[in-house]
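Issue 218. Parser rejects a valid record. Input:
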Amino acid sequence: MDGDWVRIIFSHTSETAQGLQQQAQTLYDIYDYVRRSSDGLLGAGFEAAFRAEIEARAEAIQRRVYALSLEVDEAGRDLMTGSQRLREMDAECAALFEALQAEYLVAPSVMGFLGLEDLWHFAFDPYTLEEAADYLDDTAAGQDLLKQAEANKVGFKLPDGTIIGYTGKDGTLIPITIDDASVGSALYDPKNKSIVVSNDFWQRFAMRGDKNGLAALLGHEMQHAVDHAGGLMAGPDLSASALKGKSLAQVQEDVRKAVIQQVETENRAYARGGAIEADKSYTDDGVLTKTEAEKVLHHSLGGQYKNYEAYYEQAIGEMDYFKNNGIEVDVWVDSGGQVQVSLMQQADYIPAVNA
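Output the parser choked on:
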């Protein structure tokens, strides 16, 4: 709701009101002209019969013109009052929709792309994660993801207890929950082997009636879990004990390998989610291109991190080894399309005890 239609109506009614008021003034002028003209005629020495007829006609014209002028003037005032009310309604609607958008209840262009079924869910019956999972299972990319999950013995437990993917007792069961934790849109936690969908983000997607988008979100995080189970996220150990005694060049290469694995899994996750949302097939070609790497690193995250590049730099820099040795981390993609990492020790660094 941007109020454009209200402003257009207001403009037209204002112009119409002004035009009617001008017509009223014109009628007043005609009334005055007829009055003065008839007075002149009546004093010109006509025969009595003609004088009476002219006088009667002049009086009739005067009364009619005067009545019309009053009606036009009143109509003009009514239109001006109505246009003012439209302006007030415009302001009220703008404030209402601004408040709704601030609460993530509606997207600015939501009514432009939702169908009747989605509009119903948007207003009365929000889509659930279970419904999103059903949609995921109906897509080619989603079915392929679930096959990969089965191959890696990974199952996913939805909030209602339904398990998708691998259902055997000897596998890894990853719960998917909705939580108020501040995790951005969603998060796969490899340490706890769980997926958490931010409650705020879930409400935004569900209230939009965007089942496809919610399914894409699930597919993204599920891809991370499958990658983890398949050993695709088992990068070098960056703990202080594992890095102690290594040269800076060796540590830098370990960090580079770890970052590359993170960029690769993010690339697969975004591609998988996008294919699920669009109901298209997806196959990982195993090659991380320059465009793909830059797209991941420059992807906006919001919150305290500008993008993945900033997130990796800060997250690694806050790890014990790097923090205790005053080492800053810089991540970028070179001209050849390779993800690179530079480690720089701060000039004013003072060695920590037992670093």
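Fixed in the parser; the record now loads. Residues 64 and 195 are 81 Å apart (CA to CA).
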